[in-house]
Amino acid sequence: MASMMATTGAYLRSQYWRPRRENYGKAGFSRRFLLCQQQQKQHDPTKPTAQIARREIILRSSELAVVGAIFNLRRPARPRLNGIGRSSTYIVIIHCSGKKPDYLGVGKKQQQLALCPATNNCISTSENVSDSAHYAPPWNYNGGRPQAVSRQVAMDELVQVIKTTKPDKYSARIVEQNSDYVHAEYASPILGLVDDVEFWFPPGSKSTVEYRSASRLGDFDFYANRKRIKALRQELEKKGWTSENHF
Q: How far apart are CA 1 and CA 170, in angstroms?
């Protein structure tokens, strides 16, 4: 999942509005937080944005962990003005997906998936095993079977698990697939933040599957990418897949 307090794209802006004169005495200043990331498309003003009252926020996933921390901070008391009641807080959530990286896919010079950036929101089997923050072990789709299956059978199993498994309620959409490569976009359920997850079946006789899972935005993902890969692996293990090492 993409981190929401990054210096590269995320912003949180607080605004105050006075209530209409006819509403004096009914409500106070409304404080609205605009939370978003760099957007790939301009927000459509014709589509209503979701407003969630402060007490109605349910921290169901790590996506809202930072937001929860912000709103649990003690706010300084604001004086009552002209009989106006106390202020209320709302979050205005705007759908944000981020821009698709141009370096996804299998490298032409080096036959491998891309390495991770320095941020802690990516894991990849292409990383050095000594890099505990970014390295993840590859899979073997015949490692736990009494009888080996073909690459095509393994590919079908992988695609089926991607479509039916929703770690942290992220929804998956396969945007590219060929005989040895799958690229899926995982969108978060509330903000629409997108993570790119790739799987590659390297050429050769080995039944190895490499992968990479990374958030498009932010600096930290609250281990969402690792949890996603673990959830997918656990479902694939039921079909006879194994991992070189668990994490």
A: 9
Taking CA 243 as the corner, what is the angle to CA 241 and CA 247, rounded to the nearest 5 degrees? Answer: 135
SS3 167: helix
pLDDT digits (tens, 9 = 90+) for 40-83: 444 444 444 444 444 334 334 445 554 444 344 444 445 444 55
> Is there a single domain that holds both residue 222 and residue 174?
yes
96, 127, 153, 220, 226 from 120: Cα distances, Å: 20, 13, 33, 5, 11
Assess whether 158 and 238 both reside in one domain.
yes
172 Rama class: left (phi>0) / alpha (psi -120 to 50) / beta: beta
Number of domains, the chain: 2
pTM of the model: 0.67
Judge contact between 134 and 123, C-beta under 8 A. Answer: yes
What is the C-alpha radius of gyration for the chain, rounded to an integer number of angstroms? 22
